[in-house]
Amino acid sequence: MASETIEILDLAGINRALTRIAHEILEHNRGTENLVLIGIRTGGDYLAAELQKKIAEIEGVMVPLGTVDITMYRDDLGSRSNLSVGKTDIRFPLGEKQVVLVDDVLFTGRTIRAAMDALVDLGRPLNIQLAILIDRGHRELPIRPDYIGRNLPTSRNEQIEVEFDEQNIPTSVSLIK
Amino acid sequence: MDFKQKHILGIENLTAEELTFILDSAESFKEISTRNIKKVPTLRGKTIINLFFEASTRTRTSFEIAGKRLSADTVNISASGSSVVKGETLEDTAKNIEAMHPDIIVMRHNASGACQYLAERLDCSIINAGDGMHEHPSQALLDAFTIRQHKGKIAGLTVAIVGDITHSRVVRSNIYCLNKLGARVRIAGPGTMLPPGIDKLGCEVFNNLEDAIRDADVVMMLRIQRERQGATLIPSVREYSRFFGLNEAKLKLAKPDAIVMHPGPINRGVEMASSVVDGPQNVILDQVENGVAVRMALLYLVSGGDSLQND
Prior knowledge:
Helix content of chain A: 25-40%
Shape of chain A: globular
Mean pLDDT of chain A: 94
Low-confidence stretches of chain A: none
CATH architecture of the largest domain in chain B: 3-Layer(aba) Sandwich
CATH class of chain A: Alpha Beta
Number of domains of chain B: 2
Oligomer: heterodimer
Mean pLDDT of chain B: 92
Structural class of chain A: alpha/beta
Number of strands of chain B: 9
Number of helices of chain B: 11
Strand content of chain A: 25-35%
Radius of gyration of chain B: 19 Å
Strand order of the largest sheet of chain A: 3-2-4-5-6
Helix content of chain B: 25-40%
């Protein structure tokens, strides 16, 4: 069967979703005090950078931004063929911080589990919140996002693709059937 | 890229792409050693045996720390405290160790080819930590990593390696590695320590230190290997030091920003004057620091995936 691609969000749609998430983060955390953004490589790091810009536009504060690579924390080392391991880059202490973890698509929840393990190895945050552009369901772990761009029920064999341009700006989200 | 090596037996059978992939992976592992909690769960549940038939401080400690920072269980066996002294053969020792189901054996042995021999007979991954006068791949990789760290690149650089070339596995691995990554390699040493035909590996051969290090970007000094009869190949240590020892005056022949390297352990005052060892151009402790990151990358990469070729 030929695959079919349906665009779920375009540039403007993603922009609206991220603007709303930025407002929700600020509302929930009552401002930017002790707030930090950590993006999960790759994809989440670009979205976290976008959220940082939006928050700066709203509050005039550049909140600290970091990236986490979860390769070393994955639970499937024996069955992978791609062994590329990226860098975790968090240049500030996490202790007593309100951490918003950012990723593009939430699926089984295993990536988030690995990312949380990676973060607690670096310090003891006050709390960890989760912001996600697309929640496609099918959780295999008890993980729930705090901020959601779009809920998108999918079947397991469908794919979600988030595209970024050369400046790492998210341009579209598509469902591939 | 897909990294498909099950063993790391030498640099000779790795491609430039694989070497670069190992160095890039090591960049990511380096950060872990700077954390408060210097541990990631990557190799949790894996068993690594460090099987050392020759004395080693740096390499064995480095591999052990690398394994522990990846959460593997590491066990050290040294020849002096093992049944080898009671007359057991290498194969029997290894088969007995394998019966305890290790995932990786890191081995140093005084016979060239010993790691290849085990790799053909055992199911687990073998990493060569130095075999006789053959290869010492993790040393060459940490050297390449350190050069890249200080020079930003490897391709196009001139690297001079000076000392007992005949007995040095570090030289052989370095010649392979640096050539594959695009550097020019020069070697120099007393005639008795220059094996005939070494130029066929891809290096320029000099019989004096001055010509070899002139305008070099990297100067790598080697130790006289007293345990490998190195000392009988020269009239005296003092004479060797006069002709092939590196001091501040000779180092001025190299590029002003040249870095000085040594695989350790250093004999101060023999191959290198103390003023050079403690001087601003030396990167010897960076080599040691980077060794842990490079070995973490090797342990991680040979552990990955069912897709590894089984030869």
